[in-house]
Specification:
By secondary structure, this protein is mostly helical. It is built from 6 helices and 2 strands, in the order H-E-H-H-E-H-H-H.
């Protein structure tokens, strides 16, 4: 069993399947003239910090707490010490990877770091020699067909233009709200109930806020 074989098996296992049809927006570059998610190496990167700002200084404890929650029952006779050692090993490995490896530029898997996560194209196998992998699929009971984009582009399937409707779209409606209306708390997201969380800052920012339009 080679590393390439493991990577191929992983890609097959993670490929979109028919059960997910019309349930999720599955990141893709299929038949979309408006957006490209994946680079030439078929990897997409997005902002996804492992820890929120208030936990950045106590990551070691957060890792230990998260791992220990997975080992809720180590009371079976003869297995307590085994679970304890396994829990310790996993915690130490995660601590090294997150606190050391991911703190270095482009050292994580697929260039991930503590704040940037990456995902490979779910419709293609692993890249080889810098070239995109072969398309995944074959058995319709196991894989979603790439030729039916409306199966995996579910957030906006009814645009007015028929050619775009055939392609399928990934997108959400955007509502532009004037910054002044937020600052003055004159209208909420419902258009009826005004918000109650005022935008405040220090003396200097309070001078700038009225000049921000959107």
């Amino acid at each position: 069993i080679t590393s390439d074989m493991i990577q191929q098996a992983y890609a097959q296992a993670m490929a979109p399947n028919p059960w997910e049809k019309n349930k999720y927006n599955i990141i893709n570059d299929e038949q979309d003239s408006f957006i490209k998610n994946f680079s030439g190496d078929q990897i997409a990167a997005f902002w996804a910090p492992i820890f929120p700002p208030d936990q950045q200084t106590n990551t070691s404890q957060e890792i230990q707490t998260a791992v220990s929650a997975l080992f809720v029952d180590s009371s079976q006779p003869g297995l307590g010490s085994v679970f304890d050692e396994l829990q310790k090993s996993i915690s130490q490995s995660l601590e090294t990877y997150i606190s050391t490896t991911l703190s270095e530029v482009r050292q994580g898997e697929n260039n991930e770091n503590r704040n940037i996560a990456t995902i490979t194209n779910p419709f293609l196998g692993p890249t080889k020699g810098g070239l995109p992998g072969a398309p995944l699929g074959g058995d319709p009971n196991l894989f979603l067909e790439k030729g039916n984009p409306s199966d995996f582009k579910t957030s906006w399937n009814q645009p007015r233009r028929s050619d775009l409707r055939r392609e399928g779209r990934v997108g959400y409606s955007v509502k532009f709200v004037s910054f002044d209306s937020l600052q003055q708390m004159s209208a909420g997201s419902s258009g009826q109930t005004p918000p109650t969380n005022a935008i405040t800052g220090d003396a200097e920012s309070n001078l700038d806020l009225p000049n921000i339009k959107h």
